Amino acid sequence: MTNLVKEQLGSTKEIFTVISIATLANFLTGFNARLAIVGLPTIMYELSADVFQLIWVIQGFMLGSTAIQLIVGKLADQFGRVKLFNFGILVFSLGTLAAGLSTNPLSLIISRIIQGIGGAFLISLTVTILADSVSPSRLATWLGLSQVAWRAGALMGLTISGFIIDYLGWRWIFLIQLPLGLFALTWSLLKLRERYKPSEKPFIDLIGFISFTVAIVSILLGLTFHGYGLLEESLYILLLGLAVMAFFIIWELKSKHPALDLRVFKIWQFSGGIVSQLLYSIGFGASLTLLAIYLQSVDGFTPSQTGLLLIPFELTFLVFGLIGGRLADAIGFAPVAATGLAIGSIALYKLSTMNTLTEILLGEFLLGAGTGLFVSPNTGSIMNSVPPHRRGVASSLRTVSFQIGFIASLNIAILSMTQILPYEVVSALITHRHTTGLNNNLGVEICKLSGAIKHSLGIQAFIMALGIPFTISRLTLKRKNVGK
Fold first, then answer.
1. Which fold has domain 8-204+259-483?
2. CA–CA separation, 390 vs 385, rounded Å?
3. Which of 64, 273, 279, 473 has its CA 20 to 30 A from that of 403?
């Protein structure tokens, strides 16, 4: 028997209330996601950070969000969604304030981790709340609209953040989010109502949570040490991370109250969607960051110009995000999602051969179309593949798979670049606009940086394409089931 209050599911007024708050939360997280991209070189310079500290500014948010997902999903299924959602908005806003007041790389990284913890509640529970409130036959459409809100926030983040950095300073790209967070919290407290009635006895799997967090942090540190050239230390830390991750998986499968119910992976429609999303996120994760670095450090554009030049991606995703959701509801998720992955892979390959601004803009257009077609249909298929009382866990696993892939993408990007150029040179090249130059071979070094960025984009194109068979296989499984 479902735990949802069924009579609330057909009310247009109730649905639009949920949609309004979900879209505001997605707008806020999208706004945050794009604010820092065009400002990375400036932040690096003003805080005297190197390229790996730069990556930790990005993945600090992802780390905090990924680790806390284990608790978010379980708590959402055990205690309900709304209070946790409001708590997430509050923590996110506090982290935003701390980031804007940071005075060194470490304090900024810690602030981003706090932001990530709050963001975990928003990212996961917006999807869960929507799934609780909307009928399965219309879920992909509403998810598409919700994703458009995220992209609209991202679009504004790209548009105004460059100008904020150029005229007010990088701190204000964080501080400007605080009023948005307080407004979202007030609106949610006034309007959002709980629609889910928990049936599980509350229990937190601390061993699972701690082991997962240790595993993820160890793997990230191992990859960072590898980039610094500390190969032996990197190997030991990576092995520790993998060993603890293996322990986590065994523990979760045996636990009566797992932090993540990994048994849902027995459902192929679910597990295939998770694998597809993981490969997609590895391919996509670092793409805009690499493009922002390329436009500023190779082509010499300012932060505000870079933000404007990245808008075509966001606009295209906004349009195709809506189209993807509607097509999935009409013809099924698999053909739409597979087409999106194919177009996205082609886009990344085209960007790996870019030489002119026209080629960059064309690549952005294709990448926006591909990712827009993939995200909503694949998310809808994942959420509809599990029973209602497991949607909190399913949403957490969906988010964790994306974030792990995103983090992996960033590390693959930087590691591939530092295999061509030492990390000290990469760090200096990214901020060379602010210096008098590295040496007499600056032009040659910048050409090498350009080649390293393109090489990384080519690797990501291949990885994204690997997700296509997992999407197609779910279409084949569906057809077989229909024929029985």
1. Growth Hormone; Chain: A; (1.20.1250)
2. 10
3. 473
